[in-house]
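Lab manual, section 2.4: Encoding a predicted structure.

Procedure: take the sequence of the chain (289 residues), apply the prediction step described in section 2.3, and record the output as structure tokens. A sample record is shown.
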Amino acid sequence: MGSVIFNGKMWLLGGYTPERVNDVWCSSDGVNWHRVTSSAPWNGRNLLCTIVYKGKIWVMGGITKLKPDAQVSYNDVWCSSDGKSWRMVTDEAPWSPRGAATALVYEDRIWLMGGFDAANYLHNNEVWTSRDGREWELVTDEADWGSRAMHTSVVFDDKIWVIGGGVYNEAYPNNTVVDYNDVWCSSDGVEWHRVVETAKWMARRFHCSVVYDDKMWVIAGYHHGNRNDVWYSVDGRIWHEIEGTPWPVRHAPACLVYRGGIWLLGGFGEVLYNDVWVYTKLGEESSLT
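Recorded output:
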């Protein structure tokens, strides 16, 4: 699912329930949730990119299953000022259809990186940027971090960071070709510096990353099994683990920084979760629902 902070609330968009959905929810406290719409005009999907840019929520790409043996990826771009009414910016961006890419806002532009096309499991290491979501510039088609998806990206220390991720094949559920625990950064999206090739945390995909308390964080994920470990770093090279995480193992949760804490929402472990947890730098960690 996609997640953003917008208008002072946490928002969840689309996802896997286990059907691909196109509903939109928001909450100001993590306990009481309001369904803004049960059916946005963009098709139900998961592994979509969501950001806040120029006072709007943006949805880009993602994956859905049209029939039992066929998945399709998207390269459409949508935006909304309220989460209910959506405008299609383009139904076919110049970047190829993909899911499990990452997107962020850096230097007042949208950036979209990596991802894979579920129709043929084709991964890429492209970096694209746009000022309006319609016109896109290919910054590089071969970033040094190599073709991957299911990674994370953040803005930290005035740079773009790419963290972990992996490469799929079609042999579900044993479909890990490779998972990474490397960390890369760039100030322009073209020249990339590998900060560490093998971080202390185990290689993984479908984790989440945030910037909180002047640190980068790596949370949960999947590598031959789901995980619930939590790591942080002030430089991307040296990582420290937070011990005693109480929530069950999972991959693909939503993680947001909100009201002075890191919020973890849902994800997929032994079951699909709709729980909500919050962590603060004071060490207070608890389940809200």
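Check your result against the sample. The first strand starts at residue 2 and ends at 6.
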